[in-house]
Design goal:
Helices cover 46% and strands 17% of the residues. It is of the alpha/beta class. The chain has 2 domains: 193 residues, Glycogen Phosphorylase B (Rossmann fold, 3-Layer(aba) Sandwich); 176 residues, 3-Layer(aba) Sandwich (Rossmann fold). The strands form 2 sheets. A 7-stranded parallel beta sheet has the order 3-2-1-4-5-6-7. Strands 10-9-8-11-12-13 form a 6-stranded parallel beta sheet, with helices on both faces. Helix 3 crosses helix 4, helix 9 crosses helix 14 and helix 12 crosses helix 15.
Length: 384
């Protein structure tokens, strides 16, 4: 077995967004890093990149072709570790490594949030849970990123080997940091906002799960009471047009700024006042963690990821995902109390530094990898 790892996901951007530090670490250990995902993006710390046509929908026949292609690669390359991410990447990656496991390949799967979570539709349980249960026997190490998923995985025995809990993918707390007052004012000027504006920030794809409509409805309740509040929505997606229409219908078009896809979020965040979130389902949302690292208080809807990051009255609040009034009330409280915003924001930053910083999470993952690395090296010595 050679010192080679294969990382698999649905799309290659996933690795650029979340896993480059881990890929860099493997290279530093003298390992070859291979990546399999849909897309032609050039990735650093990558020896070989495979453009595999994995589709997000589990019902696309193209996934059968992707499985055959990936299985041939795994059988040929004899990877020591195959680590899969994302739901479809996780299915195809583990199935592709089925034969290779008999020859010593170890399979990892990181669940970035089970679809069969508390409060999820029955259809999610009927579709995703049986698949994960079947794949448990093909999983040597299941990595979960929140407590709810960890406990569920243990209860249902969703791995043939180790079930671990790490604290997300980690946030670079040096990169995402609070700005001083001068820097904050300058950024706001560049963005076209004044000091009197109260900036609410949310970065997410416009889709059904992210539920930006909730934020627009909540802001509309306060359009007369909080004239300085502005909602900044970064991202693109199928429902953006619908959200623009809703803002117009509710009379808050001048209070909602659709920023589109942005590469400068690290600069925008420290100039904002409050991070908001409206999704129905999250594993452990990086957008909220980045905002917390920048020292922002958070007001978001209740789901397992938000509730794990946000402690009521400590660094923000969570409210039911159908309660616009509760959201509006907490927003009013934060708007009128600058000292409270500052205190909650300081707790947000401290929470990231203590538990979710990139270095801490990288070390958690290193410990998992080293266990299997050591086993592989011992097996090699035994053969020699």
């Amino acid at each position: 077995m050679q010192k080679k790892i294969l990382l698999c996901a649905t799309v290659d951007y996933h690795f650029k967004a979340f896993h480059l530090p881990y890929m860099k670490w493997f290279k530093e250990q003298g390992w070859e890093v291979h990546v399999a995902a849909s897309g032609t993006m050039k990735l650093p710390y990558t020896d070989v990149k495979y453009d595999i046509p994995i589709q997000r929908s589990p019902f696309r026949l193209a996934n059968l072709g992707a499985l055959r292609e990936l299985r041939a690669i795994v059988d040929r390359e004899q990877f020591a570790i195959v680590h899969s991410h994302t739901p479809l990447g996780g299915v195809i990656g583990r199935l592709a490594a089925r034969r290779a496991r008999k020859n010593g390949t170890k399979t990892f799967y990181t669940a970035h949030g089970f679809h069969f979570c508390k409060g999820a539709p029955a259809a999610n349980w009927l579709c995703y849970y049986p698949v994960e249960k079947l794949l448990a026997n093909l999983t040597d190490c299941l990595v979960t990123i929140n407590e709810e998923d960890y406990e569920r995985a243990r209860m249902h025995r969703l791995s043939a080997g180790t079930i671990a809990h790490v604290h997300g993918v980690g946030v670079d707390t040096e990169k995402y940091r609070p700005a001083d007052e001068y820097e904050r004012c300058e950024i706001r000027k560049e963005l076209g906002y004044s000091e009197s504006d109260l900036l609410l920030f949310y970065a997410a794809e416009f889709n059904k799960n992210k539920n930006q409509q909730f934020l627009i409805h909540s802001l509309a309740l306060l359009k007369d009471e909080l004239p300085g509040a502005r909602l900044l929505l970064a991202g693109e997606g199928a429902l953006e047009k619908e959200c623009r229409a809703l803002a117009g219908k509710l009379g808050v078009s001048d209070r909602v700024d659709f920023l589109g896809f942005r590469k400068d979020i690290v600069r925008i965040l420290p100039a904002c006042d409050i991070a908001v979130g409206s999704s129905f389902r999250e594993g452990l949302p990086v957008n909220i963690m980045e905002a917390m690292s920048c020292g922002l208080p958070v007001l978001a809807t209740e789901n397992r990821g938000h509730c794990e990051l946000i402690k009521q009255g400590v660094n923000g609040w969570t409210v039911p995902p159908d309660n616009h009034q509760a959201f509006a009330e907490k927003l009013t409280l934060l708007t009128r109390d600058e000292k409270l915003r500052r205190t909650l924001g300081e707790h947000s930053r401290a929470r990231m530094m203590e538990r979710y910083s990139l270095n801490l999470v990288l070390n958690e993952n290193k410990q998992l990898y080293r266990k299997y690395m050591n086993e592989m090296e011992e097996a090699v010595w035994a053969i020699q």
